[in-house]
Amino acid sequence: MGSSSISASDDNFLFQHEFGHYLQSQDHGLFWLFSYGTESGISALCNDLTGHDIFYTEQDANARSIWYFAKHYGDSYIKDNWKFTKNPLIGDDQTKSYKDNLSVIEGAIIPLTISIRNKDGVEDDVAQNMSVDISGIDTTNFIL
């Protein structure tokens, strides 16, 4: 957890990581709370710092943030400014460029899948980027 003196600076390790959580929330909306927020909080309470750093929600946050900063500031930003000792990414080779590590970064980002059961209890998977029209569906028994 950060203090009130933390600054929103792209070379601040805590900002780098927390910005990844912000990116998660932008991709997943309200589902972020259930798919990342709660899990991350439980991990932070139950694991030491090393265990929490390698937890999937934290790896995903680091990967999203690395991807964002590399895309907007280039490989040199990652090489010169990313705090790998504080915000590790499992499998990342720091001697390689961002583009050479892209498969590691993309592999750490978890796609959102929503499981929906119809009134007969049959489960359907809905991909994150799929458009779903629910205008004719009775949503009174939906459970999050």
Sheet with the most strands: spatial strand order: 1-2
Strand content: 5-15%
Secondary-structure-based class equals mainly alpha
Can you tell me the residue ranges where pLDDT is under 50 for at least 5 consecutive residues?
126-144
Over the alpha carbons, how many angstroms does the gyration radius reach?
A: 18 Å
How many angstroms separate the termini? 27 Å
What is the string of helix and strand elements?
A: HHHHHHEE
Features:
single chain; 144 residues; mainly alpha; two-stranded antiparallel ribbon; disordered C terminus
Outline the secondary-structure elements.
Elements: H1 13-28, H2 31-46, H3 49-53, H4 56-73, H5 75-81, H6 102-108, E1 113-117, E2 123-127
Helix pairs in contact: 1-2, 1-4, 4-5, 4-6
What does this structure look like?
With 144 residues, the chain is mainly alpha-helical. It has a domain at 13-108. 48% of the residues lie in helices and 7% in strands. It is built from 6 helices and 2 strands, in the order H-H-H-H-H-H-E-E. The chain has helices spanning 13-28, 31-46, 49-53, 56-73, 75-81, 102-108; strands at 113-117, 123-127. A two-stranded antiparallel sheet has the order 1-2. Mean pLDDT is 74; it is low at 126-144.
